[in-house]
Write a structure and sequence with these properties.
The chain has 333 residues and is an alpha/beta fold. It folds into three domains: 106 residues, 3-Layer(aba) Sandwich (Rossmann fold), CATH 3.40.50.11740; 41 residues, no CATH class; 118 residues, Alpha-Beta Plaits, CATH 3.30.70. Helix content is 38%, strand content 12%. The chain binds iron/sulfur cluster. Iron/sulfur cluster binds next to helix 16.
Length: 333
């Protein structure tokens, strides 16, 4: 199995497949570090390059790799400080000579390149360099190779729930699971009950209290007064689409919609009729819009899925649980 796309091209161009003995099967692997570096990682590197007082250091092959709107080469041409290095250790020298700048090394590659980066970080610590950091976009190969060799695809993360149950995060969250229900009783009583829970029982109470599901709490629009929020001032507060732009969220426009409706009639027949289409207001990214085709056209829900910032609010808050958020294509977002 060849890993790098250049190898694949060389094998094809020179007709090597035809001269291989039948006992050898050539498989194309996951791609070289350049091929497998995701758009969003390049976008992040570009963002670092644009930060004032930042020097981005990288291997030369990453310079021309395009992100969603720019590349490191273009940023360099625009006057930002992007420097090619031949070893991560060169980046340490740059950091030493530029103590007033933050030096970021763009770390790409597989297990083979990680030890060099690791030893560079150790060197940076030994040399007392506090202005050096690594943006790690490393990939791990064995799992991808095993999947390719076994012709597996679309694997589900079945081991995740059990791994989460065993993790420190689950333990930490489990200890504080009753916080919200206690606080329903007000600040003083809630604090007292939660204090007993934590101090007396150490978070290991034999009971688990429950809240009402958020979507069950939504009231019909006729029972609520309209809130007139102040308009964004463009200095401290911004409109939603400007904020989405700043979040650097990026999706391919043509990918399948990851916000699925169980019943396409519900947004108008229930949500708009009863709740004045709350998805237009609770979604922080303005993904949901009620639009009319022409002045007299019937209303319909338009889903601008490419703007989604994946907060999952719609999946939780939709009053009839009609919206199903699924992971976007290629883990984007
Ligand atoms: S997950 Fe839902 S609510 Fe959150 S940004 Fe995406 S569409 Fe909007």
């Amino acid at each position: 199995m060849e890993v790098c796309g250049t190898h694949t091209v060389a094998i094809a161009r020179n007709g090597l497949r035809d001269v291989m003995p039948p006992s050898i099967t050539l498989l194309s692997g996951p791609g070289c570090p350049v091929c497998v570096t995701a758009n969003r990682d390049i976008d992040t590197a570009v963002e670092y390059a644009r930060r004032p007082g930042t020097i981005v250091t990288t291997f030369g092959d990453m310079m021309k790799v395009p992100g969603s709107s720019s590349s490191l080469a273009r940023e360099k041409a625009d006057g930002h400080d992007v420097r090619i290095v031949y070893s991560p250790l060169d980046a340490l020298d740059i950091a030493e000579k530029n103590p007033d700048s933050q030096v970021v090394f763009i770390g790409v590659g597989f297990e083979t390149t990680v030890p060099v980066i690791g030893s560079t970080i150790k060197q940076a610590a030994a040399r007392g360099l506090e202005n050096f950091s690594v943006f790690s976009a490393h990939k791990t190969v064995p799992a991808a190779l095993e999947a390719l060799a076994a012709n597996r695809q679309r694997d589900a993360l079945t081991a995740f729930p059990a791994a989460f149950q065993r993790s420190w995060l689950h333990e930490e969250l489990h200890k504080t699971r009753n916080f919200k229900p206690y606080m329903k009783h007000g600040l003083w009583m809630g604090s007292l009950l939660f204090g007993i829970d934590q101090k007396l029982f150490g978070g290991k109470t034999p009971w688990t209290l429950h809240n009402t599901a958020d979507h069950d709490k939504l009231k019909p629009a006729t029972e609520c007064a309209k809130i007139d929020y102040p308009k964004p001032d463009g200095k401290l507060t911004f409109d939603r689409l400007s904020s989405v732009f700043l979040s650097n969220t990026n999706h391919e426009e043509e990918q399948p919609c990851h916000l699925r409706l169980k019943d396409a009639s519900v947004p108008i027949a229930v949500n708009l009729a009863l709740y004045d289409a709350p998805e237009q207001r609770y979604c922080p990214a303005g993904v949901y819009e009620i639009v009319h085709d022409g002045e007299a056209g019937a209303p319909r829900l338009q889903i601008n899925a490419q703007n989604c910032v994946h907060c999952k609010t719609c999946d939780i808050k939709d009053p009839t649980q009609n919206i199903n958020w699924v992971v976007p294509q290629g883990g984007e977002g």
